[in-house]
Specification:
The protein is of the alpha/beta class. Helix content is 45%, strand content 10%. The structure holds guanosine-5'-diphosphate and magnesium ion.
Length: 343
């Protein structure tokens, strides 16, 4: 049985006697104690009633979880449908709009190791047509934290990237950053960076060149820290070959976001992923504010309908961004606790 971590109240009381200058020492001390005392149950501050999580009744003790991540349209749902040989296991998008921002997991026996089951988790990208990035982060974080709190094991993570992309788009960079923050450095050795859509390339050589670029730039740090790369060839066999290196129970991993939420009991906005998203959104707020003031001065009181419309759209976007930044603000209570070195 996991010991309850609320026994850390003693340390919390100690914090009343410490000055903010010693907060770093207390943070270290409290983190160490948290690790020693076990992870305990996650209270699920961020969880909502309609969130998808794994039902304890459907899980077996040695199931291994593989979250599949990446930008919208990279082929996550297609990869999962292919690996489980069920064309409708998850919804595949067929136009520019993303399909569903709900998380869906599919459980499947490992054909290479009968008796072992793998839980593939289809996650929405941080560029969904209908859902805010802050909501996407909350859903992914809740799924991962709940499964870790219930003692489920993550084998590793598959990150998909379309090889047909001629340059790294802003959304792809954002997705990669969020992915790195969710995994943390310690999770990188269990990451497979997979390129998709090789059959849609006009010639394979262009794909080989792009893969080389990814290896030497955007993916370099991750590869240096143990992440592997692979190509998805659109078949079930290819998908299982890709995940094989991470399907070893003794090499399972704990993702950084799971550690932060469940072990360190952080609020989502205090996590590295929360911080990174808040900073990206804050930059966008500034850009939008500049655009609005520019449009207002251009408008100069004259009735240009196109300008009016652009202004209205940008103001609407700014409003939505500010709402997200607000959702990612660290609550005052949590900030006060962190001054004393407690999460
Ligand atoms: N040729 C090819 N097309 C793919 C591949 N993966 C996805 N697609 C197509 O790309 C589109 C988006 O795929 P989807 O699986 O919904 O992407 P998701 O948003 O990442 O889940 C669909 O039209 C798929 O048919 C692939 O590996 N090869
Ligand atoms: Mg999908």
């Amino acid at each position: 049985m996991q010991p309850e971590r609320d026994g850390c109240g003693y340390i919390k009381r100690l914090s009343r006697f410490c000055t903010p200058s010693s907060s770093q020492h207390f943070r270290l001390l409290s983190d160490t104690l948290m690790a020693i005392m076990g992870k305990g149950k996650w209270k699920g501050k961020e969880q909502r009633p309609d969130d998808t999580v794994m039902n304890p009744a459907e899980v077996q003790p040695n199931d291994l979880i593989i979250p599949v991540m990446g930008p919208s349209g990279a082929g996550k749902s297609t990869f999962i449908n292919t690996v489980v040989r069920q064309p409708d296991a998850t919804l595949v998008g067929h136009d520019l709009e993303s399909c569903t921002a709900k998380i869906k997991h599919v459980i499947c026996a490992n054909p290479k190791n009968p008796g072992q089951r793998v839980v593939f988790v289809d996650t929405p990208g941080f560029d969904d047509t209908y859902e805010d990035d802050s909501e996407i982060l909350r859903r992914i974080a809740v799924w991962l934290a709940r499964s870790y709190s219930d003692d489920r094991t993550v084998a590793g993570v598959v990150y998909l990237h379309e090889i047909t992309q001629t340059r790294m788009l802003g959304t792809s960079r954002k997705n990669l950053t969020m992915f790195q923050k969710l995994c943390g450095d310690e999770g990188l050795k269990n990451v497979i960076l997979v390129t998709t859509k090789w059959t849609s390339l006009p010639d394979e050589n262009s794909g080989v060149k792009r893969e080389e670029q990814l290896k030497n730039t955007f993916w370099k740090d991750m590869i240096d820290q143990g992440s592997k790369i692979a190509r998805f060839h659109d078949t079930c066999e290819s998908a299982w070959d890709i995940v094989e290196p991470i399907l070893k129970e003794d090499q399972s991993t704990v993702l950084h976001i799971q550690k932060e939420l469940v072990e360190l009991k952080k609020f989502l906005p205090q996590t590295e992923a929360g911080n990174a998203l808040r900073s990206t959104l804050s930059d966008l707020v500034e850009t939008h504010k500049k655009t609005i003031s520019q449009l207002r001065s251009e408008k100069g009181g004259q009735g240009n309908e196109e300008l009016h419309e652009k202004l209205r759209d940008t103001e609407k976007e700014l409003h939505a961004l500010l709402k997200q930044v607000q959702e990612l603000k660290v609550p005052l209570g949590a900030r006060v606790r962190s001054w004393f070195g407690f999460h």
